[in-house]
Each structure stands twice: as structure tokens, then as C-alpha cells.
Amino acid sequence: MLQDKIKQYTGEINAFQATSAADVENYRLKFLVAKGIIKSLFEEFKTVSIEEKRTLGKELNEFKQLAEAKYSEYQSLFSGTSQEVKREEGDLTLPGTGFQMGSRHPLSLVRKEIVEIFKKLGFIVAEGPEIENDWHNFSALNFPPEHPARDMQDTFFVEKQEGNDIALRTHTSSVQVRLMEMGKPPFRAIMPGRVYRNEAISARAHCFFHQVEGLYVDENVSFADLKQTLFHFVQELYGEGTKVRFRPSYFPFTEPSAEMDISCTICKGAGCQLCKHSGWVEILGCGMVDPNVLNNCGIDSKKYSGFAFGMGIERITNLKYEIRDLRLFSENDVRFLSQFETEIV
Ligand code: DAH
Questions:
Q1: Which tens digit of pLDDT belongs to each residue from 185-229?
Q2: CA distances from 232 to 108, 140, 164, 192, 312 (A)
Q3: HSE on the CB side for 291, CA within 13 Å?
């Protein structure tokens, strides 16, 4: 009976829920096409009696509207996906859409390289805060109260506090102190990070730059250990045969102190503009940790000794890539940055 069929299909359409574009398409094929259910019900309608036509005509038209409304509702919902499906089903042998890889910042590349070399020697990586107090940045490191490095000209102060000013750290040596305060020897760590100094920005100076600090504290650590460690580091970073030399120097937190030069990476010692025709370029400061520093950090300086060193990552990078202007590192010029190695991690 036509009336029963209309009832049955109305129930079916009301219950219908599409979860994909394919469901919508099946619905259309079942109800709306030329050989579909609606068409067949209208064919059947032609065969019923005139009395029946009066009531069934209205019902049939309402049914048709319901079926079409349901279809257009779902069609708009899935129209996006159905297009995507079509595209996906296109030519799967076509090459994919390429995308451009970025490159690593030269300072990140060099920091990573330095860290890798020391990791192989058993050094762990430690980090500390960039906003530091006077104790960790200066006092614990044996800086006398009147030392010029505490001066407003060098240090960016954040907050004046009686006896313990808060400032942006001026070097990563502060992390040495934090590390030693926190634990017991032996310590063998490298500490990369950003540091700040109140300097006018030029090709050779910047108000922020990056350092890597190194610290080794244990029983019987000697200056020979320091020399051998740094010699090995230089051979790894700049290649076998790079010469090193140590010159006596002064730092409040090391005794004795030294600065280390390497044979010029550009002219290999023959003399050029970069090394000011001396054949040597300075790359780091180092020395034996001053016993006062050990004591300040709660470490028995009679039992333990140690060495420390600190280097500027910019300086190491300049020598490696022959970069002459520090400002390039922070200008974000893509022409500069894209020259460096792209690495997928
Ligand atoms: N902190 C020094 C600086 O900022 C670098 C330095 C020198 C670190 C000698 C050390 C060291 O650990 O032993 O210039």
C-alpha cells in the first residue's frame, strides 16, 4: 500500500544520520535519482483511486519535501570533505607539494658542537637563570666589593637590594656557583647560556651575547688536566694540528688564571688581519678554581680542587665561519641565516 510505504520511508528518513560524504551520496542514490524511491512512489500514485489521490497527494508531496530538505542539509555539511576526497583520489603518482626547510642559527650550531665535544668527555649540561643576584654573579666568585665589573657601566641592574642587587647575569660563571651550592663533588659540567653587558652595540660588541662555562671539581684536579681537556676540545672543534698556547692572566675566581689562544684559523699562523698578524687568536679564559670560591659554595678546598673555563660562543663562531660583525647574529636577516646548515632533528 502506498500510504504504508510513505510512512515507512518517512520514519527511515527521520532516523537517517550521515557521518560521511559517502553516506550522503548513498542517500541520494536511494531516494532522489530518476530510479529512486520518490520517483517510484509518484509512479504508484498514478495508479490509486481518485478519492485516495486527495489525501495521499498531500502526504506524498510532504514526503518529497522532507527527503529533499534532509539531503540539502547533509550535502552542505559534507561538501568540503567530498571535494577533498575527490582531490585525494586524484593522481596519486604526482610528486608531493614541497615545503621549505629552515636553517639552524649559527650560534645554535656551534653551541651544540661545543656541548657534544664535552659530553663525550663526561661533562653534563647545566643551566641557570639569566636574572641573577649579586651573590651568584659576583660575591661568591670572589669579586671584591669595589670591582669595576659591578659598575653600572657593565651591568644591567634590575633591582637594587641591600647587599644583594638583582641584575642580568654578566657571565655564565654564576652557574658554577649554583651547581656547587646544590651538590657534592665531583662536578663535571658545561653551562651554555646568554649573558648581558651594558655595552654600546657595534661590530665588535653587543649588549647580549652567549657563553659556555666549564667546571671540573674533584680530588687532585690539576692544571695539566685543564690543559689536556682544552687541547682536546680545540682539536675536535677546529681540527687536528690546531696549536694552543696559555698566557698568564687574572680573574677573581681562578688562581692561577690564564687566557688560551689558538693558532689563527684563517691564516694558520702565518699572520693576517684577523689575528692582527700575530698568528694567534684568543678564545677563552680559564684557571684553577680559587679556594675562596670553593669555600663560598660549601666545598672543602683542602680536599678538592678544580678547573674552570669560559668562552664566548660568538667568538668561536666568528672564527669558524669568518663572520666579522656581531650584529648579524641578532638582526634576523634571512640572507645571512639561510647560509647555515639545515638539519632535521
Ligand atoms: N667569566 C669570564 C668572562 O665573562 C670568563 C671566564 C674566565 C670563565 C675564566 C671562567 C674562567 O670560568 O676560569 O669573561
A1: 999 999 999 999 999 999 889 999 999 999 999 999 999 999 999
A2: 21, 30, 39, 19, 18
A3: 6
Q: Which tens digit of pLDDT belongs to each residue from 182-192?
A: 999 999 999 99
Location of C-alpha cell 645571512: 336
Closest CA to 297 of 251, 253, 257: 253
Cα separation, 216 vs 230, in Å, equals 12
Distance CA 172, CA 66 (A): 74
Substitution candidate for ligand 1 out of 173, 211, 250, 257 with most atoms within 8 A of CB? 173
CB atoms within 10 A of CB 235: 15
3-39 residue pLDDT tens: 999 999 999 999 998 888 888 999 999 999 999 999 9
Query: Taking the domains of the chain in order of start, what are their residue ranges?
Result: 2-90, 106-340
338-112-186 Cα angle (round to 5): 170
Q: What is the mean pLDDT of residues 236-260?
A: 96
Evaluate whether 242 touches 316 at the Cβ level (below 8 Å).
Answer: no
Q: Which of 309, 313, 316 to mutate to test the pocket of ligand 1 (most atoms within 8 A of CB)?
A: 309
Report the topology of domain 106-340.
BirA Bifunctional Protein; domain 2 (3.30.930)
For 297: left if phi > 0, alpha if psi spans -120 to 50, otherwise beta; the answer is alpha
The residues with which 213 forms a beta bridge, in sequence order, are 191, 310
pLDDT of residue 93: 85
313 CB within 6 A, ligand 1: no
In terms of pTM, does the model score above 0.90?
no
Residues 6+ apart with CB under 8 A from 112: none
Pocket lining: 308 vs ligand 1, CB cutoff 6 Å? yes
Place of cell 659576583: 138
Selection from 118, 112, 124 nearest residue 343 by Cα:
112
